[in-house]
Amino acid sequence: MIIAAIVSILITMALAVTRALLGKTVYDRILAVNVFGTKTVLFIAALAFLNGRPDVLDIALAYALINFIGVIAVLRFFEYDGNGATRPEGE
Amino acid sequence: MMALVIDLLSWALILVGGAFGIIGGIGLLRLPDFFSRIHAASVTDSMCAPCIIAGLMLQSGFTLVTVKLLFLVIFLFLTSPTASHALAKAALHGGLEPGEHYDAGKAPGRKR
Amino acid sequence: MDTFVDIVLLAFLAICAISILTLRDLFAMAMMFGLFSLITAGLFTTMDAPDVAFTEAAVGAGISTILILTTLAQTARREAPRPRHNALLPMVVVWITGAVLIYGTADLPAFGDPDAPAHNHVAPHYLQESPAEIGIPNAVAAVLASYRGFDTWGEVLVVFAAVVGVIALIGLRRRPPGVTAGPVAMEQHDVLRVIAKLVVPVILLFGLYVQFHGEYSPGGGFQAGVIFAAAIILYALVFDLDAARKVIPPGWLNRLPAIGALIFGGVGLVTMLLGGDFLDYDYLREDPRAAQQLGILLVEIGVGVTVASSMLVFYFTFAERGRGRRTGNGETGA
After folding, report:
1. Which residue of B has its CA nearest to A35?
2. Total structural domains in chain A?
3. C21 and C146 assigned to the same domain
């Protein structure tokens, strides 16, 4: 059962990676990487259950935090230049 | 008896969560426009993650692990929609317009 | 099942690496780097190495990506096209070197082989005696902080040296004179600001948990320091650099990496003064086990302080450097 969860999470991750590679705009890629990050959190949680090591859940929790911060960092540096002014589009 | 019900319920939740994840992933690939893909991505964040985590919580009973999983799901509930919202707002500011216009070979990110 | 998961993750890794090489858009490449670290963290988890996975996820997928993005924000968006050259000779050299290296690995013992020399030297002693001699459940923390404490001391000094290098090269300065405070970035992102304010204390608390729970579960000083720094970096990203610089009292940020290293070295010095060797924790208390645990606790605190302040120094120096520049219309700041 947990194996079914892991397989489906891996499939979703594969689909997200495909979108990250194909992505027409950079926003598509950011979105795909964000999805990949949340799926990895689930993957680690499911792995923790499969291997019977619940203390690995801390990694999942930490990664959920880091993923959020990473997406916000990408957004900020994509949208604004160093002085807080909006970047000219297409730069 | 109770254990059987809980087991079946967690089975069902995990399977449903996995299915939603795949549905969201397929949507991410097949939907035509960035803004519609955000919907697909948030399907995975709002349905796949809570269902799978709820299934895992039922598996582990009343232990510290359940509390950690609860924290995880609350955190994901708070931050994933925020990230999608911030991303959509940034895309709008960056000149991306909703609709299927930009797929027709135009440079990415430019106004129509 | 394990093999299947490993194969899938390694396939992702290969795809990611190839895309990093071929992408010309540097922002996308930076995100692919983050993805790469994340997949590696997943691989480490399947190999049953949670401490390493933790550090890889936090440092590689988090801080490293943020630092690369901070640097990219000051340079161009796309990679300049490289002049074409004949790649035949380099390819031949690379293939021959790679083949020789792979041939050399054929002599290594099988992965995870219990009879390998590396597993029969001191490892059995560490694993078997650690409950009796040290008594903390996380054997990795015991090895890292006590049995191999000297190596960890070296790692802390390496981080400190990196901070010294960055400060010497770039310098942590205030806003350049003549540049007025511009519009605050992310001003219109109201939802994000509210959620970030809610989330930053949670992350800080989690960092403290990881620091002090590192003796019982995967965690410890390195991971905790990174998470702590990530919280303050999130604050800096959403609420602008000036607000974040006020979190740490001015003048302390440059000194904290040194203070962390001093805590670590200070423990070693105290043990020497008490009659033992450098970092021989047995002399800190009457009971050797309690002494070891106290030593590990203090040393991990030193590591955590150094790592957290180092990451913050890196981020602040890089981000501060990007100020005072204007992109797109030719003006440059001080």
Report:
1. B41
2. 1
3. no
The answer to whether the beta carbons of residues C38 and A37 sit under 8 Å apart is: yes
Structure tokens at C179: 């540049």
Structural domain including C40 reads 1-78
In 3D, which of C108, B2, C153, C233 has the Cα closest to residue A68? C233
Q: Please tell me the pTM assigned to this model.
A: 0.85
What residues have CB less than 8 Å from B22, skipping those under 6 apart? A8, A11, A12, A15
Instruction: Report the candidate in C243, C187, C233, C68 with the shortest Cα–Cα distance to residue A85.
Output: C187
Q: How far apart are CA A75 and CA A71, in angstroms?
A: 6
| Closest-CA distance of chain A to residue C169, Å | 20
C65 and C195 co-located in one domain: no
- Inspect the interface and report whether the beta carbons of B38 and A64 lie closer than 8 Å: no
Give the gap in angstroms from C-alpha A38 to the nearest C-alpha of chain B: 7
- Cα nearest neighbour of A49 on chain B: B56
Q: Determine, yes or no, domain membership for A22.
A: yes
Domain that holds residue A21: 2-79
- Residue B16 belongs to a domain: yes
Q: How many domains does chain C have?
A: 2
Interface contact flag, B49 A8, Cβ < 8 Å: no
- Return the exposure string of A56-87: e unless at least 16 CB atoms fall within 10 Å of the residue's CB, then b: bbbbbbbbbbbbbbbbbbbbbbbbbbbbbeeb
Specify if B105 maps to a domain. Answer: no
**C212, C223 in Cβ contact below 8 A?**
no
C188 touches chain B (CB under 8 A): yes
Q: Which amino acid is at B101?
A: H
Q: Report helix, strand or coil for C292.
A: helix
Q: Would the CB atoms of C48 and A74 count as touching at under 8 Å?
A: no
Chain B residues with CB under 8 Å of A31 CB are: 28, 34, 37-38, 41, 84, 87
| Separation in Å, CA of C191 to nearest CA in chain B | 7
How confident is the prediction along chain C (334 residues), in pLDDT tens digits per residue?
778 888 988 998 999 899 888 888 888 888 888 889 988 988 888 888 888 988 998 898 889 988 988 888 777 777 777 778 888 899 999 999 999 999 988 888 877 777 777 777 888 888 888 888 888 888 888 888 888 889 999 999 999 999 999 988 887 666 655 555 555 666 677 888 888 889 999 999 999 999 998 888 888 889 999 999 999 999 988 887 888 888 887 788 888 999 999 999 999 999 888 888 888 888 888 888 888 888 899 999 999 999 999 999 998 888 887 765 544 433 343 3
Longest distance between any two alpha carbons in chain B, whole Å: 62
C225 vs C5: CA distance, rounded Å: 30
Q: Buried b vs exposed e over B9-19: b needs ≥16 C-beta within 10 Å?
A: ebbebbbbbbe
